[in-house]
């Protein structure tokens, strides 16, 4: 567990996705500041989650990462941006997992990399998870779409019950785990004690821990580079038959049922017909895109991407969490957990 660094893999993808997100006037989009010369289909990508005990700063850290990448504006006026339910805002806890796609430029150093090379652009899918023990199933479904996780621990409170539970969920899913010791600005913070806990309980190397304060922004510049360098790219097969994992769903009065999905293999396009491995029902893809952080239609989702689909489902009861979705005329091996 000490060394979690793995090789990055660049995936070649179809073209012309960027224009479908930015539209005819890219200067009006927050995407354009970092991606106006890039094609989204050719970006290296990472899917990662943030896991923590309740009140260790997980949602605040998610906010800061969204701000750091320009996905939301600084001082947007709404703390815990990804906590959208009223109970989440009132209680300060995350109940439903939420996803957001971010774009970040980073220069990866290593053998065979020219020092003169420009920083590469990366597509990062953040899946924010519940921290309360009652929502462990939500956490496990979210982790199924990830290759790595940020394990956030309060620098003063140290490892607590849900820290342990979430660690083992991530460990059993064979995820790369990056320890993040948060709230180091607190007067009672003791990062060295927490590092020792992480080593003795989880065999995580103290030198791998990132020291941050999501509240003040201290140390946050090291988080996304660590995600890129330590978490591998999704292992799916681009030219394989489509397989998608259904992560979550909710009902929108204008669009109907909106499903959050992770494309494990293949490519999904608007107009495709898909079937559910669990129910056998068939649907047409009416809309498809990414969360940036709100719905951004792209017309396509590629291998390794996390996004949303609208299929005309009449009720969220049709959207079974953990289901495998695939092209209607194909036969596939359901993903684990279906």
> What is the spatial order of strands in the main beta sheet?
11-10-16-7-8-15-12-13
Specify the helix fraction band: 10-25%
Compute the number of helices: 8
How far apart the termini lie comes to: 29 Å
**Class derived from helix and strand content:** alpha+beta
Show unreliable segments.
1-38, 83-97
Topology:
Layout: H1 18-22, H2 32-35, E1 44-52, H3 58-68, H4 86-91, E2 98-106, E3 120-128, H5 136-143, E4 148-154, H6 161-172, E5 176-182, H7 191-202, E6 210-211, H8 223-230, E7 243-252, E8 256-265, E9 268-269, E10 273-276, E11 282-284, E12 287-291, E13 295-297, E14 300-301, E15 306-310, E16 324-327
Parallel strand pairs: 1-3, 1-4, 4-5, 5-6
Antiparallel strand pairs: 2-3, 7-8, 7-16, 8-15, 9-14, 10-11, 10-16, 12-13, 12-15
Helix pairs in contact: 5-6
Features of the shown structure:
globular; alpha+beta; 27% strand; single chain; 20% helix; 338 residues; 16 strands
Give your account of this protein's structure.
This protein has 338 residues and is α+β, with helices and mostly antiparallel strands. It is 20% helix and 27% strand. It is built from 8 helices and 16 strands. The protein has helices spanning 18-22, 32-35, 58-68, 86-91, 136-143, 161-172, 191-202, 223-230; strands at residues 44-52, 98-106, 120-128, 148-154, 176-182, 210-211, 243-252, 256-265, 268-269, 273-276, 282-284, 287-291, 295-297, 300-301, 306-310, 324-327. An 8-stranded antiparallel beta sheet has the order 11-10-16-7-8-15-12-13, with no helix packed on it. It has a 6-stranded mixed beta sheet with strand order 2-3-1-4-5-6, with helices on both faces. Strands 9-14 form a two-stranded antiparallel ribbon. It is globular and about 55 Å long. The two termini are 29 Å apart.
């Amino acid at each position: 567990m000490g060394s979690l660094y793995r090789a990055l893999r660049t995936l070649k993808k179809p073209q012309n996705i960027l224009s479908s997100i930015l539209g005819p006037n890219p200067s009006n989009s927050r995407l354009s500041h970092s991606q106006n010369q890039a094609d989204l289909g050719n970006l290296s990508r990472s899917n990662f989650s943030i896991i923590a005990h309740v009140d260790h700063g997980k949602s605040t850290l998610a906010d800061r990462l969204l701000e750091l990448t320009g996905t939301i504006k600084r001082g947007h006026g709404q703390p815990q941006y990804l906590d959208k339910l009223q109970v989440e805002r009132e209680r300060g806890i995350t109940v439903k997992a939420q996803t957001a796609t971010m774009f970040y430029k980073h220069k990866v150093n290593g053998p065979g990399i020219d020092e003169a090379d420009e920083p590469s652009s990366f597509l990062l899918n953040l899946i924010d998870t519940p921290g309360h023990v009652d929502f462990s199933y939500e956490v496990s479904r979210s982790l199924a779409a990830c290759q790595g996780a940020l394990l956030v621990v309060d620098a003063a409170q140290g490892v607590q019950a849900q820290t342990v539970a979430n660690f083992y969920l991530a460990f059993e899913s064979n995820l790369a785990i990056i320890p993040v010791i948060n709230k180091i600005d607190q007067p009672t913070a003791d990062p060295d004690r927490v590092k020792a806990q992480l080593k003795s309980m989880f065999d995580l190397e103290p030198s791998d821990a990132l020291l941050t304060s999501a509240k003040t922004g201290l140390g946050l510049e090291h988080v996304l580079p660590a995600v890129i360098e330590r978490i591998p790219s999704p292992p799916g097969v681009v030219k394989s038959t489509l397989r998608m994992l259904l992560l979550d769903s909710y009902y929108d009065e204008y669009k109907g049922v909106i499903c959050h999905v992770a494309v494990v293999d293949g490519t999904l396009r608007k107009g495709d017909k898909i079937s559910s491995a669990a129910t056998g029902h068939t649907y047409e893809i009416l809309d498809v895109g990414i969360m940036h952080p709100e719905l951004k239609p792209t017309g396509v989702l590629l291998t390794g991407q996390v996004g949303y689909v609208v299929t005309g489902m009449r009720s969220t009861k049709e959207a079974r969490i953990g289901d495998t979705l695939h092209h209607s005329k194909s036969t596939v091996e359901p993903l684990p957990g279906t």
